[in-house]
Amino acid sequence: MPDLYYVPGSAPCRAVLLAAKALNVNLNLKLVDLHHGEQLKPEYLKLNPQHTVPTLVDDGLSLWESRAIITYLANKYGKGSTLYPEEPRARALVDQRLYFDIGTLYQRFADYFYPQLFGGAPADQGKLQKIEEALKFLDTFLEGQKYVAGPNLTLADLSLIATVSSFEVTDVDFKKYSNVKRWYETVKSTAPGYQEANEKGLEAFKGLVNSMMKK
C-alpha cells in the first residue's frame, strides 16, 4: 500500500485522493503538520527536498507534484482504465488539461488568493482578471463536452475539480460560466468517492480560510 503524505485541505492532495478512489487504490495516509514544520524535518526532506505536499512513497519510489503522482498511479494500478487512456491522442488531451491546471488555472488561483490568505494582502484586480480569463478557457474546453477531455471521466477532471472547488472559498463566481457549472455538477455526481476524497478536505480548507481571514 503506497504511503501518501498529505494535508486534507490542499487541492493537490485532494486530487490524489480522488484519483486513488477512482482507481480503487488504497493509500496509507500520513498527515503532515505544516503548522509545526513537519515538512522541514530531515526525514521528510529526504523524501521530498522541496518539502511540499502531497508526497507519495511506493515501493522505494518517492514522488511529489500531484499530477505526476496521479498519472503514476494510473500507469501502475490502472492499466486499461479510461481515466488515463493509452491511445496517444486521447492521452495527450488529458495531459494538456493537466498542464493547464497546474500551469494556468491553479497557478492563477494561488497567485490571487494565497497572498490574501497567508499575507493579508488586498485582492489584486489584475490577478482576478487572469483567473477569469483562465475560467473562460476552461469553459471553452467544455463546449459540447461532458468532461474536460472528452466523453469519459479522466484524471484531468479529478485534478481540475480539486482546483475549481477551491474557488468556493473566494469571491470568484466560477458558476457564471455555464459549461463549467454543468461540468462541476457532473463530476461531483460521477467521480467515485467524491464526498470523502474532496468534499471533506474542502470543508477543512474552508475552516482554515475562515479562521485566518478573521485575524
Automatic annotation (TrEMBL):
CDD domains: GST_C_Delta_Epsilon, GST_N_Delta_Epsilon. Homodimer. Coiled coil: none annotated. Residues 1-81 form the GST N-terminal domain. This is Glutathione S-transferase 1. Residues 87-208 form the GST C-terminal domain. Keywords: Transferase. It holds the Pfam family GST_C. Its EC number is 2.5.1.18. It is an enzyme of class 2 (transferase). One of its GO terms (molecular function) is glutathione transferase activity. One of its GO terms (biological process) is glutathione metabolic process. InterPro entries: Glutathione-S-Trfase_C-like, Glutathione-S-Trfase_C_sf, Glutathione_S-Trfase, Glutathione_S-Trfase_N, GST_C, Thioredoxin-like_sf.
